[in-house]
Specification:
Elements (H helix, E strand, L loop, with lengths): L1 E12 L2 E12 L3 E5 L6 H9 L6 E6 L8 H8 L2 E4 L11 H9 L8 H7 L15 H13 L5 E5 L7 H16 L3 E5 L3 H7 L2 E6 L2 E6 L1 H6 L5 E5 L11 H4 L2 E2 L4 E5 L3 H15 L7 E3 L3 H9 L4
Parallel strand pairs: 3-7, 3-8, 5-6, 6-7
Antiparallel strand pairs: 1-2, 1-4, 8-9, 10-12, 10-13, 11-12
Helix pairs in contact: 5-6
Length: 303
């Protein structure tokens, strides 16, 4: 059974079609990442599924219910979902414990406050005011409030944007724990490593249309040309490599990443250089393009 169903969804703003004839389903318990350049329609799509916007045409159902439903049906439906919006709107004067208890009081069967605080890693900050928390800690509170009602479906709209790498990975761990309990997660993100780490499946939007729907590995396989990757030893610079390899060094990552149309020739060049320079090739990989490579090939975008 699908927890989320989208059929021929279109959302127009005047002459602009932010989402155009998009269809897909998300089985219960699956984690799906929605990718796409800025303006691709990701936030519009997730806001329709959350009930904040109405479709111009098409049909959406979340847990079998129209997200725009009112009355008792709508109230019962909202108690079964959780959401983390792009920006936080927490009351900065509340303590972490007060915020979690307040939100928990809105649900008939909330998770125990202590369990939520443990999951989001803020048990020691129970008495700390939200305004005194770091940005990463505040996003953890957002996630705690979204999960306290034991949601069957959780919507995450760019939940880790602006966070440092350590804070991002902390949030990933919480999301993975939720997914492990069977919660269906639909998330938008600009981080390809985030999608690779968390998602069972990736949906790519471009100009409001669905351009890909596949597992991360299937999407990587669509990237075409295989890639030679080698983490370079400390102190090795791009200029130390042969010219045909040097232009493919990512200085920030300290890594050679070479799309290769002729693996035999390119590997021979690399091995010959390594022998002459006494460089250890431990860590050498030859495989499909990264998810990022495949995504950029698919969208023709750098955003």
């Amino acid at each position: 059974m699908n927890a989320i169903e989208v059929e021929h969804l279109t959302r127009r703003f005047g002459d602009l079609a932010a989402v155009r004839d998009v269809s897909f389903g998300v089985p219960a318990g699956q984690v799906v990442a929605v990718l796409g350049p800025n303006g691709a329609g990701k936030t519009t799509l997730i806001e329709i599924l959350e009930g904040f916007q109405a479709p111009s045409s098409g049909r959406v159902r979340v847990l079998g219910t129209d997200p725009r439903a009112g009355g008792r049906a709508g109230q019962a439906w909202r108690a079964r979902i959780g959401m983390v919006l792009q920006s936080t709107s927490l009351d900065r004067q509340l303590t972490v414990g007060e915020a979690v208890r307040l939100y928990g009081s809105l649900f008939a069967r909330p998770m125990p406050v202590r369990e939520v605080l443990d999951l989001i890693g803020l048990a020691r900050e129970t008495g700390t005011r939200i305004g005194a928390l770091s940005g990463g800690q505040q996003r953890r509170v957002d996630l705690g409030l979204a999960m306290i009602g034991r949601p069957e479906v959780l919507f995450l709209d760019e939940p880790t944007t602006g966070l440092d790498p350590q804070a991002r990975r902390g949030l990933w761990a919480v999301i993975q724990q939720l997914a492990a309990t069977g919660t269906t997660v639909l998330m938008t993100t600009h981080y390809l490593d985030e999608a690779q780490r968390l998602a069972n499946r990736v949906i790519v939007l471009g100009d409001g249309q669905l351009t890909a729907d596949a597992t991360p590995d299937q999407l990587r396989a669509r990237g075409g040309t295989p890639v030679i990757r080698l983490p370079l030893p400390a102190g090795t610079r791009a200029g130390d490599l042969p010219a045909e390899l040097a232009s493919h060094v990512d200085a920030d990552r300290g890594e050679l990443s070479l799309p290769s149309a002729d693996l035999t020739a390119d590997l021979a060049t690399l091995v010959a250089w390594a022998r002459s320079s006494d460089v250890d090739l431990t860590g050498l990989e030859v495989g499909s393009p990264s998810l990022e490579d495949a995504y950029l090939t698919l969208t023709g975008s750098t955003s």
